[in-house]
Amino acid sequence: MTDLKVRRPAVSGQFYPGDASSLSRDVRQYMDEATLPDDLGAVRAVIAPHAGYVYSGPTAGHAFKALEGGPDRPWTVFLMGPAHRVPIGSVALGAYSAFRTPLGSVPVATDRVAALLDASALYTRSSQAHGPEHCLEVELPFLQVALAEFDLVPMLFGRTDPAQVAADLFDRIGEEDLIVVSSDLSHYHGYDQARRLDRSLLDAVLAGDKRGVLGGEACGQMPVVALMAVAEEKGWSPHLLDYRTSGDTAGTKGQVVGYAAVAYTA
User: Fold this and answer.
1) Could you say which of 127, 240, 241, 256 would form a disulfide bridge with 62 (CB–CB 3.0 to 4.6 Å)?
2) β-strands 75-82, 5-7: how paired?
3) Considering its fold, how many domains does the chain have in total?
4) pLDDT above 70 covers what percent of the chain?
């Protein structure tokens, strides 16, 4: 753990603004424009989308506004998403001391990462998977605006059993830890079909139906199901905060991508 590198942004200036002032302004606006239920409760985890901000930023704003309302304390965020670009057969944690964005560097909880690697073959370093990946990176500026102080356990899911990952995490997730799952929903269907597919998957999430989620369409199915299993064990309840598609934000309605914000509360 002595030669850890800082993971540099891969999609800054593409998925989100590359300069700090524009980025913080946009994230703050997405969060300020989000509306939440008055009685949401203590938020322990969220699901948020990871497309370009012009498409998914309004929905992501709901998820991170929910996190912003929590206690002002140092947090460790278990940030989970799917490996889009490099095939892996486990959960890649990387070999990093920090993740950098235009808003600064987010420290990695290197002790927590080392404990995971030492405990189970479910986890691997595989910085190769993290290097070009966007799904964790795009959540970081939102976290940097929402939380005063936090460090990170970066988790990219490949072809792995989410139930086994959840079973390993049950006792590791404490009162000073949060889970953020990065996932979009259906991809490139017509607007009405996408809404039907997404509604079915979100109904499964809200019902705790893990098999239903695995049978639906979402690029982050594996980390979503892992979160669902952890939430079931800990008694957390899901709440749908926002749903829309790229056809509702900045795209056409011929082929859309679905986005949802879900909060889990204790």
Assistant:
1) 241
2) unpaired
3) 1
4) 99
